[in-house]
Amino acid sequence: MAAAKIKKGDSVVVRSGKDKGRTGTVLQVLPKDNKVVVAGVNIATRHRKPSQANPQGGIDRSEAPLHISKVAVADKDGKPTRVRFEERDGKKVRVAVKSGEAIDG
């Protein structure tokens, strides 16, 4: 399996869809489905009936998974960049293509 270019904790920019241009941090990566969950992006609402566990009921809002191709890692200036792998000091490191700087992850 190839190394992941987007990891949990990365700051990403949404490149397409209803949340295009919004930024957030990756909360979860789902590699089998090629999806990521980003904080504050792609909010799904669900209407809940009152129950014993939740007697008030109401509307639950939560982040839904996005396809991984819709997001790109944000560079230091906040703009999207691609990611490549380089070997630095004998270690495989993720590097931002635009700036050439190593991505902390």
Task: Describe what this molecule looks like in 3D.
- The structure is a single chain.
- By secondary structure, this protein is mostly beta strands.
- The protein has one domain (10-96): SH3 type barrels.
- Helices cover 0% and strands 46% of the residues.
- The strands form three sheets. The protein has a six-stranded antiparallel beta sheet, with no helix packed on it. A two-stranded antiparallel sheet has the order 4-5. Strands 9-10 form a two-stranded antiparallel sheet.
- Strand 2 and strand 3 form a beta hairpin.
- The chain is elongated and about 60 Å long.
- It starts with 10 loop residues before the first strand and ends in a 9-residue tail after the last strand.
Tally of separate helices = 0
Q: How much helical structure, as a percent, in the residues?
A: under 10%
From the spread of the alpha carbons, the general shape counts as elongated
Q: Give the N-terminus to C-terminus distance in angstroms.
A: 19 Å
Strand content: over 45%
Provide the gyration radius in Å.
17 Å
Q: Which stretches are poorly predicted, pLDDT < 50 over at least 5 residues?
A: none
Structural class: mainly beta
CATH architecture: Roll
CATH first level: Mainly Beta
Keywords: Ribonucleoprotein, Ribosomal protein, RNA-binding, rRNA-binding
Function: One of two assembly initiator proteins, it binds directly to the 5'-end of the 23S rRNA, where it nucleates assembly of the 50S subunit.
Subunit structure: Part of the 50S ribosomal subunit.
Family: Belongs to the universal ribosomal protein uL24 family.
